[in-house]
Each structure stands twice: as structure tokens, then as C-alpha cells.
TrEMBL record:
Protein's organism: Acipenser oxyrinchus oxyrinchus
This protein's UniProt keywords: Exocytosis, Transport
Protein name: Exocyst complex component
Gene3D superfamilies: Dsl1p vesicle tethering complex, Tip20p subunit, domain D, Exocyst complex subunit Sec15 C-terminal domain, N-terminal subdomain
Record keyword Transport present: yes
Gene name as annotated: EXOC6
Function: Component of the exocyst complex involved in the docking of exocytic vesicles with fusion sites on the plasma membrane.
Exocyst complex subunit EXOC6/Sec15 C-terminal domain segment(s): 423-781
Record-level GO cellular component terms: exocyst; plasma membrane
Name of a matching Pfam family: EXOC6_Sec15_N
Family: Belongs to the SEC15 family.
Exocyst complex component EXOC6/Sec15 N-terminal domain ranges (all copies): 60-229
Amino acid sequence: MDRANLVGLSPPNALDKENREDSMYGNIFAELESLEPPLGTTLRSVYDDQPNAHKRFMEKLDARIRNHDREIEKMCNFHHQGFVDAITELLKVRADAEKLMVQVTGTNRRLQDAGKEVTAQTEEMIRCRVQQRNIATTVEKLQLCIPVLEMYSKLKEQLDSKRYYAALKTMEQLENIYIPRVSKYRFCQIMAETLPKLREEIKEISMSDLKDFLESIRKHSDKIGETAMKQAQQHRTFNSAVQKQSSMGYGKPLYMLNGKASSPESGVALEVGVDEEEEHDDEVLTAQDLVDFSPVFRCLHIYTVLGDRETFENYYRKQRRKQARLVLQPQSSMHETVEGYRKYFNQIVGFFVVEDHILHATQGLVTRAYTDELWNMALSKIIAVLRTHSSYCSDPDLVLELKNLIVIFADTLQGYGFPVNRLFDLLFEIRDQYNETLLKKWAGVFREIFESDNYSPIPVEDEEEYKTVISRFPFHDAEIEKQQFPKKLPMSQSVPQVYIQVKEFIYASLKFSESLHRSSTEIDDMLRKSTNLLLTRTLSSCLQNLIKKPHIGLTELVQIIINTTHLEQACKYLEDFITNITNVSPETIHTTRLYGLSTFKDARHAAEGEIYTKLNQKIDEFIQLADYEWTMSESDGRASGYLMDLINFLRSTFQVFTHLPNNNNDHAAMSGKVAQTACMSACKHLSISLTQMLLDSELKQISMGAIQQFNLDVMQCELFASSEPVPGFQGDTLQLAFIDLRQLLDLFMVWDWSTYLADYGQPTSKYLRVNPSTALALLEKMKDTSKKNNIFSQFRKNDRDKQKLIETVVKQLRSLVNGMSQHT
């Protein structure tokens, strides 16, 4: 049955559904065939409709394909006959085209054969006409070129005979007269291009002497600089001697001078301070004695005649700049020895001495602006090099020698008119480096002093030993002086040694400040600042490290406290020492004060803190030995062994303080204060440690017997506190360290919860120091123990009442804790 009949028989609803499907799939197929929208969206729409949508889509797709196949077949059947006819006609045309191609090829070949002879004769005629014209033109142009060639030949002869001036004139005629007549010819262009090269050859030949000169001054720069610096040092020594003579009031000079003051044109520097006997033995050389300057003058004249003086000046300056860069480039190992620095400075001085001579001996070859620019460039490089290499120096003696070289170097160049202020500014930077090396050196010295000290008072057997000690260290005590020999001084051996080394440091720091052209006030300020660095950084660091060393015991720490007190008192003598050296009054407005007070005070505080720390650490070691049986039914009736050992240790420790020398009231007061603070700190730490032991989170259960045993131990602690292990405490001050723990234990021992809860928060409460959270934590541990040990006791009335009481107290304590947290 066909589709129409089926449609006619289908219900209306089925027919509408099928039409909708055909329309929908038709749209989908149209989108797929157009290839414009994304295929993913189109294909997704196929599967999103119904469960069997894929099957329906494939059926519709097959039907669509069959329809397209039928349409293609119809189209091919319709056009097939026309295609066959077109192919048949094309085959006929191809045969005619081949025949036409054969005919055209034959005709072309016959035409080429006929024109060959005519073409050859025509080309021969053209060639003969060109040759004839070229010959006439050549004869005409040769008549113009022969004079040019003759002049060029003459030029070559002059060059071969080294007649450079005549050659330059000939080249001038060639360029201005002859070559312009025939300038369009290639050989003339080559000749014109050659003439500048010939001129350059003449310049190079004339410059050979200049290169020899440059090589000569490069080799002799070291010697020139050495001579100049030596003369500058002699001149400086002579001036110092003259100033000293004037200050001493002598009427005649110290020695006669046979030196001469040379101008920059005549010599390198001044010949001064040379004795008559030494003048013949050690002749002072000048730059002209070491280097012949005539080549540079001749070369300058030649370039001036050539009209290229500027080029010569630029070349000379460029080469000298290159030599300057080489001179300014130091050796990598220059910082290892002073000779490396001396050679570096000699080369630089020699370079600029030569430049100064050229500046005054020539007219504009170098200018003051050029030398200033070159010096500024060199000065920046010199400062960078010295700053870098001086940072490698760890030997203060080498840094000091470097400073002296820089001063002589600066004075030498300053004598030639070069500004050297930046070099003196650099010396201040190197001074800081010098101070750093001194500080490192003295740090080692202080460490050795502290390591070799026995940290016990200095024994003095007789008057001679006593004077020896006080000559090294400013110690004065009337009571000790009244005592009979032998006697002991309160400080240890390290105190006078440290004092002497501080003075040695000041001397070493003063050495660098000499010859810096600074006032006494500035030198005084520098010495005080460097001494402050020694005290506040180096000595303070050594003291701090000493205090932290594990082998330093309590006795040594107390001795360190006494030592720092004496060193602090000696700071005023150090200030007087600096004042005597610099002759600057300490009342000067800008005078820097020594910071010894804060340095040694910090060291004392650190020592005291270390005493307290060591005591607390020892207490912790004893506490770790505690081995309580927290579930015991009743106590042993005596205190624990670990606690008795701890108390004995504390007694013997605090006796150490009482055995310290008390012949000086200040020292006795100091040791007593330290002992009191240490004793109070130890008792507080012990109380806190015992409380933490009770409240340890890992401890889950505590019995009343364990509480009783713990109470016995705390009673021993209170007895120790009341026995006045260290004198000076008022009343029961020391026992207050255990008051929190005592009230907590009393609360549990008496089981006085009604009083605690009723008086909680009152200033007069018996258990004022018991925190509800602490009581709750401990009671929870006892509650768990009660449950575990009384599994069957719940049938006894007393046990049931006690358990209910504990639960009631726990609830009330929790409410107090919650109230405190909400209030907070």
C-alpha cells in the first residue's frame, strides 16, 4: 500500500506528528548540509527530544541520502549525451591543431636560415663603427690624462725618496688642478681614492715616533711616579720638620736645602729635603731625564702642516685614555701586599705627571679641561678600585699602610693642581673599614682574654704586685688599701687586660687619623666613635657570648657582673685618656661621650638573666625525676626524694653567693641583690612547675593519697622558703611564691568547697588565689578516679553522697568558669 493510502488511513494526530518530525529533521539536515552552525549544537538537539530520537534520526537520514542519490542520478542521465558530444568534437580539433603546429615550426626554421648571413654582416659593420669612434675618443682623452699620470709618477718618486713635504704639495696639485679635468675616468677615481691613503701613510710614518714616545712613557710611568711620590714625601717631611722647628722656637733651620723648585715645564716635582751628602749619591730624576718628549713635538708640527692637527690631538688623547685605562686596571692580587698598592699608585702618578708636562710644554695638545676630565674619570675609577680592594683587607696594619700611601698619592697630585678632596673622603670610608678590621682583631683578643681568665678575684701578695695591678687598671678602694697583704682585689685578671686592650685600640685608631688634614676636634670625635663601637658592639658581643657559654657556672657569672661594674667605672678614665691624646676639652659642645655605661649594664643584666635561667633549667631537671604514683590510696608520710635533692641543691647554690668577697659594700649589695632575685625566681619557677605537674593534660586521674603526698612536698618547699636561704627578705615574702599552690592544696585537703563557693570573689576569701578553672581541672581528675575505684561502692550511702557532692561542685565550678568566660 502506498504512502498516500497509509496517510489517508492514519489518524489525524499521527499525521500531524509525522509532519512535525519531517519538518524538524528537515531543518536539522539543512543545518548539517550548510556547515555554518556548530555541529555539536545541532547533533545535541537530536538526542535531547525523545529516547528513540537517534533511531528516528538515522532513518530520516537514510531516506534523505536516498533522495539525494536519485536526484544526482537524474542530473547525470540528463547531461550525459551532451558530455559525450563535447568529447567527440574535442578529439577532432586536436588532430587539426597538431597539423598547424608542424606547419608553423617549418616556416620559422626556413626564415631563420635565410636571415643568418644578413645578421652577421650587420653586426660586423656596427662593431667597426664603434671601434673607430672609440679610437678617436681615446686619443683625445689620453692627451688630457698624460699630465695626470706624470704628476702621479712624480708623487711616487717623492714618496720613495721620503720627501713628504714635496709629496704633499704634489698631492695638493693633483687634487685641485689635474684630477678634476679627468675626474670621470675610473683610474682617476682610483687615484683620487688613493691620495687620502697616501696621506694617511705619511701620517702613519710621521706618527711612528709618537708611538715610540707613548711606549716609552708607558714603560717609565712607574719610575716617574715613584720619583714624584718620593719627592712629595720628602717635601712633606721637610715641611713637618720646619713646623716642628718653629713650634720649638729654633732660630736656625734644622738642615740646609739644596733642592730646587721646578716648574711643571722643567721637571716632575720639587727636590727638597736632600742633604748635601746625599745629593750626589741619590740624584733626583725628572720626567725629561726618563723620557724624550721631542717626538711628540715633531709629530704635532707635521700634523699642523697637514692641516689635521685636530686629528692628531684626538689620536693622542685617545691613546692616552687607553693607557689611562690600562694604568687604572689593578692586579687581582693587589690587596694582598702593600707593594701592589704602591706600584698601582706609582703608575697613576707617572701618567698624570707626563700629562701635566705636555699641558705646559705644548700649545693646546692637551688642555686643562681635558686633563681635568681625564683626572675625574681616573679618580672615579681609583676610588672604586680602592673601595673594592680595601674591603678584602683583613689586616689592620695593611689598611694603615694603604692609608699612608693614599695620603702621599693625594699630596703628590695635589701639588700638580689636581683636586683630591674625594680621595680624603674615601679615606673616611677606608677608616670605617680599618675600624672594622680593628674590631675583628680585638674581638679575637677579647675572646682569648675571657677564655684564659679563671674568674676569681686577683690575689695580691705584696705592695709591688698591688702597684703593678693599679698601674695597669685605675682601681682605688680605701678599705682594700687598708687591708694587710696578702689580699684579693674584687675583679678578675680579665679586667685590667681588657682595659689595656681598649687603650691599645685607641692608639691603633689614632694612627689612621694622622695626616688626614682634620682638626683635633674631628680626630677626637672619630676616636670616641670608634671606641664606642668597640665597647657597644665588639666587647658587648664577646661578653654576651661568654655569658651564654655552657661551661660558665653561677660563680663565674657573678664574677662577670663584678668585672663589668669595674669596667664601667673605668670608662671615665678612658675619656680622660682620649682627651690627653687629642688635647680637646671634654666640655666641648660636640664631644661624643663613651657608651660604656649602657654596654656593661646590658652585660650585667644578661649575666643576671643567665643565672636565673640556669637555676630554672636545673630545677626542671630535678622536676623531670619526679615519679608520683597518682592513684595511691595514701601518702608515704615523707617528702619525695627528688624534691629533697632539689632543695639541697638550692641551699648549696645560694651559699655560693654568701661566700663571695664582701669586702666592698657595693659588691656585697650587688651579690645580695642578685641572690635575692635568683632565689625568688627559683621559688616562683618551682611553684609554677609543681602546679603544671598537677594540671598536666596527660595526667587523667589523681587520688586523694597522691594529693596528700604532693602536699608533703609543697610543705618542704615552704619550709625551705621560710628558712631564709638568702638573707634580706622581709617577713614571709619568699613563702608567697607558693601561696597559690598552698591554697589549692588546702582546698582539696580540707574539702572546704562550701566556703570556697560561698566566699568566691570576696577580697577576704580564704581561697582567694584559687582559680575556678584550676580547681575544676583537678577535681575532674579526682572524679574520674572515684568512679574507677568505686564501681561497687555505689551501693554504700556515704560513697553515693560523696559522688553526688563532687558532681554538684563540678557543676557549680563550671558555671563559675562559664561566667568568667562570658564576662571576658
